[in-house]
Amino acid sequence: xxxxxxxxxxxxxxxxxxxxxxxxxxxxxxxxxxxxxxxxxxxxxxxxxxxxxxxxxxxxxxxxxxxxxxxxxxxxxxxxxxxxxxxxxxxxxxxxxxxxxxxxxxxxxxxxxxxxxxxxxxxxxxxxxxxxxxxxxxxxxxxxxxxxxxxxxxxxxxxxxxxxxxxxxxxxxxxxxxxxxxxxxxxxxxxxxxxxxxxxxxxxxxxxxxxxxxxxxxxxxxxxxxxxxxxxxxxxxxxxxxxxxxxxxxxxxxxxxxxxxxxxxxxxxxxxxxxxxxxxxxxxxxxxxxxx
Length: 292
Hints:
Layout: E1 6-10, E2 16-18, E3 22-28, H1 36-39, E4 42-53, E5 61-67, E6 70-78, E7 81-85, E8 90-93, E9 98-102, E10 107-113, H2 115-120, E11 122-132, E12 143-147, E13 153-156, E14 162-168, E15 170-171, E16 174-175, E17 184-191, E18 195-200, E19 206-214, E20 216-218, E21 222-224, E22 229-232, E23 238-243, E24 247-254, E25 262-264, E26 267-269, H3 272-283
Antiparallel strand pairs: 1-22, 2-3, 3-4, 4-11, 5-10, 6-9, 6-11, 7-8, 7-10, 9-12, 13-14, 14-17, 15-16, 17-24, 18-23, 19-22, 19-24, 20-21, 20-23, 25-26
């Protein structure tokens, strides 16, 4: 066994609003120890911890905005979010669902509270992760992978310890539901009381976890509370987690894309020239049309 140790545990940063509908803690990029290059291929992690939105006849959210050069992965734990985009796609991300959007060469979209959720009010609890694309795929055709919860591969742990939802990559031989452009493992781990499990990822893969519910002990020593983010060193392959009272944990591990990163707002490319081209293409309407 080659133990992988924790490098740091991050408390949730001060929250801010994206639009008027998403209150988030931004863990990635989170300073030099969790910046885009260190965390590559995971280049942004906005965590919407549980937050109550009162009933409203006007669905809150974020208006039309562009993306190019990466993918967005939206995971819903509580609440429902609707979306529309410039390719004509639309839908609802409900509790337990995952939306994997490949922005690639460029897309306009908007995200907002689903109509009935907005009317009723309630808790919203979500994650949005940005996944970098290798240079050769950054200008590929945009696409969606909409994964309803019943479409996500699920590995049942022994002794009624819980389940692992294999969103991408694999876990103990079970293949994930999403296709990726580079090697990525993305797992939703749902543990029952007094239970745990173990993981093995290549040492070179950048690896982290986010405690969505409950509290964890990692490698029998390091406690990671609810709403905290733990970044692992690249010093081994194996680690284990355990919870006394039950926990939900998002585990991510991916091969570093060893290419330059040039990022500005909603565009993540390899050079500043490509960023300038993205702004130019956006202003010329090459991302399509979507009304706010």
